[in-house]
Amino acid sequence: MRKHWKLLTALGAVILVIAVAVVLLNPPAPAAKQDDPGALQASGKFGFPVSGIKIGEGGTKTASDGKTITGYNGSCDSAAQAAANYIHLIEDVNVSTWAQQKKTLAEVGKAGAWTEKITSKGDLLTTSKELSSLSFDGGWVYRSDVAAGGLYRVASCEPKEAAVVQVFFGATSANVKAAPSAFFQTVTFALVWDGDWKVADAAIVANGQDFGGRVKDAGPMSVGTNMDDEATPVLRDDLVNSFFKDKTREGWVEYANAKR
User: Tens digit of pLDDT for each residue in 1-43?
Assistant: First the structure.
């Protein structure tokens, strides 16, 4: 009986050694990574990666204007959503709602010299009778539509700390000569976490602002591109090629629900 036990023990030891060797030589494949909202998918129409995150989402609350989304979770994906959802506070100018817009901007922003720079255009356009008379469609002088184009670039981000996000979007503006005309540009946001993503700095054209060296450039815009006949801001291949002619495409991503 003892001989049998010794034989079984020796056989078991040999089997164990072989099993360990097999595992070491053939390690199991890593578990598949679960998709997350910001995971990049296949390239979009214009050759940029497409994110899973959407414009008009990401938060759980709204500001006092009843439309600006707030209440983000502090992730870098939510920083990219906050930037897109704050665009209208930076770019839009409507004679009748400008006062409320400035109030909302103060709610989602941290006080600083940047606010005066950003709001100076709207202050001028809404207080000057000559300029405000250029408004169209119920008081609009500038009206953004971030879904038209809808590209973004996260220059840097630390969840629930700080982020620098650039958003490329389309908009329409009053035209002295004719109907409103379309244009495209980039807004760069420096966001900080204070229980929510707050704007600490913003620039439409980063004149000398490199946001701590975290942005590669000010981003694409339609300045210098003939868009006189464009009534609505809809991207096409020729426009994308023109806007990015002297700008890098590195890091730019499409929002999932961008018009394309």
Answer: 444 445 445 444 445 444 444 444 444 434 333 335 456 777 8
Rounded distance between C-alpha atoms, residue 180 and residue 171, angstroms: 10
Contact between 170 and 144 (Cβ < 8 Å): yes
Read off the tokens for 213: 């060296």
- Residue 239 phi/psi, 5° resolution? -70, -45
46, 237 contact by CB (below 8 A)? yes
* b/e map 155-194, b = 16+ CB within 10 Å: bbbeebebbbbbbbbbbbbbeeeeebbbbbbbbbbbbbbe
AA identity, residue 166? Q
pTM of the complete model beyond 0.85: no
